[in-house]
Amino acid sequence: MLHLFESITEDTVTVLETTVKLKVFSEHLTSYTCFLRKILPYQLKSLEEECESSLCTAALRARNLELHNDMKKITAVFEKLHVYISLIVLPSIKPDGLLRTNYSSVFTHIAAGLHGFHNVMKEISKHYSQKAALEHELPTATQKLITTNDCILSSIVALTNGAGKIASFFSNNLDHFTASLSYGPKGGTEFISPLSAECMLQYKKKAVAYMKSLKKPCSDSVPYEKALANRRVLLSSTESREGLAQQV
User: Fold this and answer.
1) What is the CA radius of gyration of the chain?
2) Alpha-carbon distance 127 to 61, whole Å?
């Protein structure tokens, strides 16, 4: 996302056809989603085994079951976001892959997915905080466990706050996103091709360079009032010279 942000400058027109860096982000998100899907069974199994332990109290077992459900939800949220982000990448790699009439719906689903992500993180934060408090009360709790829980909780809180900011920003600017995503005929149903978008950017840069070349600094000139005074002196000198010539 940082690389995508750095690729957006005032010298470019940023539309879906030109955000080629979004494809790279989508690929990384795909890898991460696959990773979440791969480790999910291990996360669930770990919580299940913990519940079967003789040291696990009824309250701790309840928190573990809540986290068991949360792990499924967070994986599902990332899979949903991955699907819709893959769709908005299509215009930059496959012009006919997404109709212009559909991008409003796609972005609406992304906004909903981000809010879902924030809600799941709030649940994880609450449940893990309760789980950590219960574990700290156990007589077998070690300092390493307490330190690890504190570290995980701080990361969860930071992620929850970040997810909230992203979801709010995206929803507040949803109308702007859906209204300024593409260039092309108003009555059209498809995006312009990436090649056309690239040409458009090149012509825009040429136009900017031409406009800059027109804005040449003006050469130094005599102020208007001083020019008038000089003209009066010149006329006076000319008249005096002509008068003397006639007298001679």
Assistant:
1) 34
2) 11
Tens of pLDDT along 25-80?
Answer: 999 999 999 999 999 999 999 999 999 988 888 999 999 999 999 999 999 999 99
Q: Tokens 């990448």 label which residue? A: 89
Q: Which of 100, 107, 99 is nearest to 22 (CA)?
A: 107
Is residue 63 a contact partner of residue 127, using CB atoms and an 8 Å limit?
yes
Both tokens assigned to 74: 């967070």
Residue type, 200: M
Of 74, 244, 84, whose CA–CA distance to 159 is shortest?
74
Total-model pTM: 0.71
Helix ranges (H only) for the chain are: 2-7, 21-52, 58-93, 103-136, 143-172, 174-179, 194-214, 224-247
Chain centroid to CA 17: how far? 16
Alpha-carbon distances, residue 100 vs 24, 34, 107, 184, 237 (angstroms): 22, 29, 12, 10, 76
Cα(112)–Cα(76) distance, rounded to whole angstroms? 13
On whether the CB atoms of residues 16 and 181 are closer than 8 A, the answer is yes
Asked if residues 116 and 72 have their Cβ atoms less than 8 Å apart, the reply is: no
Residue 167, both tokens = 């979801």
Q: 191's torsion region: left (phi>0), alpha (psi -120 to 50) or beta?
A: beta
**Rounded to an integer, what distance in angstroms lies between the CA atom of residue 169 and that of residue 173?**
6
Q: Cα separation of 3 and 32, whole Å? A: 17
